[in-house]
Structures are given as C-alpha cells and as structure tokens.
Task: structure prediction
Amino acid sequence: MVRKESKHSILILGASGFLGGAIYKELCSYFRTFGTYNTSNKSFEKNSHFFQYNMEEDDIYEILDIVKPTIIISALRGDFSKQILLHQHLAEYVFTNKIRLIFLSSANVFDAYVKYPSYEQDKTYSNSIYGHFKIKIENMLLRLPKKQIAILRLPMVFGSQSPRVQEIVQLVKAKEPIEIFPNLIMNVNTYSKITQQIHYIINRNKSGIFHLGSHDLVHHDDFIKEIVESFQLEETAIYKRVYTTNNDRYLAVLPKLNKLPKHLQLVSQDILSELKI
Ligand SMILES: NC(=O)c1ccc[n+]([C@@H]2O[C@H](COP(=O)([O-])OP(=O)(O)OC[C@H]3O[C@@H](n4cnc5c(N)ncnc54)[C@H](OP(=O)(O)O)[C@@H]3O)[C@@H](O)[C@H]2O)c1
Result:
C-alpha cells in the first residue's frame, strides 16, 4: 500500500515535459504533488493537480498561493529571459517562505572546459547561450541559504521513453542519418534513475550542488551505436559524423563531494541494459 506523506506539498514547473512528467509520476503517490503544463491538453485540464501556466503571460504567484508548496521543482524549457525573470520571483518566494527549490541545470554550465570532466566545486564556465543562461539562474540561487536549494547538473538524459532514444529509433526507421559526435566524451543518465535520485534528495533533505551523471565516461558515437544495437537496428542505421573540434572535448559532470548512496549511482552500461529489457 502506498502511504502519502503529508510532510511536503510539491510543485513541479514543467510537469507536462519529459523530466517533469517522470518526476511527477515518481512523487505523486508519496507527496501532495502538483504540476504545471503550458500546451493545452484535455487530460491535464481534467486533473485538479495540474495548472496551466505560460511563463510569457501568467503570474506564478497565483499558483504558488493555491498550492503553497514546501518544495518547488523547476523542470522548464522556454524563452531564456522569461525563465530568468521567473526564477528571480521564485528565489524571492523561496527565501521569504523558507521553502526549498530544486533546479534542473545542465552539464553545459561547463561547456567551455573541454579538457577535463567537471566536479561540483569547479567554477562554471560556458561559451554557449544555453550554458550562460543556466549559470545565470544557478548564481541567483546560490545566493540563497544553501539548505534551501538543490542544483542538479544533468548530462544527456536517456531511457526507453526519452525523446533522445525515441528520435534515434525513428531516424533509423525513416532511413535518415543519426548525428554522432566522435570527439565528444560525456557521461549520461536515465530518467528512471534521476527520479529516484530526486526522491532521495527530498526524503533526506539534501541540498547544494549535485552532479547526477554516470560514474564512467563514454564517447558519444560509441554510446549512440550501442543504443542502436540494443534495439537490434544496427543493420539499417546510417550515421552522420559531426566534428565540432579537432580534439576530444569533455562534457561530463562527475560527483566528488555530494555523492549519493551506491544504489542511486549508475554506470552507462545500466542505461543500455535497461533498454534491452
Ligand atoms: N532532457 C535532457 O537530456 C536534459 C539534460 C540536461 C538538463 N535538462 C534540463 O531539464 C529540464 C527539463 O527538460 P526536458 O527535457 O524535460 O524538457 P521538455 O520535455 O521540453 O519539457 C519542458 C517543459 O517546459 C514547459 N514549457 C515550455 N514553454 C513554456 C512556457 N512558455 N511557459 C511555461 N512552461 C513552458 C513545457 O510545457 P508544455 O510541454 O505543456 O508546452 C514542458 O512542461 C530543462 O530545464 C532542461 O534544461 C534536460
């Protein structure tokens, strides 16, 4: 029997998305869990735990006033300047109401460091617009009391229902090329593990910066080819090699200080094994 813990009310911003949706499914049996969606959708409209919210037009305070969350999880995409403004409002609300915010960030906050993988305490450094935008929000949140924030830096996220894996399968079926980056060395994660990692962070009141990636590193091209093989599609797959630099380039977030327990850690092979099931 599933027991609802009344301890927390959780608001997931972007609960209609890939990761927000997976996080909602993981948490909704244990906590009072609410979510936002942006694109109109009949099943969300009928669900009293879902609120339609467009950051370009709507005021987040209305939803915050109704839900009165003790934890907000930010899993949004969309216009960068609107997201920055929203997170300024969220930071004020979190501080005033002494609640917690979990922010899904990205390995791209380190995308200008090409020679090494990155650890939690490393200074962020990016040369992409996306990386700069994530750094801006991280820095805003890092000014809040440490206990109130969790910044989760994620590498590429895979898993059978992930948009990345579904796109690979569709491209093979359509006989179109899959882009692979032979110089890119990265770590990886899967949504089924990320949702468990977030559940643990909530249950144990963990805070700070987390690097939620596999403990091993993979070459992007090898890993994508292994995904293709796990679906036994290797005979028909066509690849397009994309070289962004002449040398190997790292995009990997490894944990050193803020490690999760063993059962919540993963290696890249776990993701491939899960796809074969
Ligand atoms: N997926 C990855 O591999 C990965 C890797 C690293 C970091 N991340 C981070 O994880 C977070 C979630 O990523 P995801 O892949 O799950 O994204 P996603 O599937 O594209 O979901 C994005 C969510 O944002 C909502 N949204 C879009 N425009 C909006 C707007 N104008 N106003 C309000 N909500 C809006 C979408 O709502 P509708 O769908 O209803 O329009 C959806 O719920 C992002 O912050 C991303 O940077 C993801």
About this structure: Residues 14, 16-20, 37-39, 53-56, 75-78, 104, 106, 154, 156-157 surround NAP (CB under 6 Å).
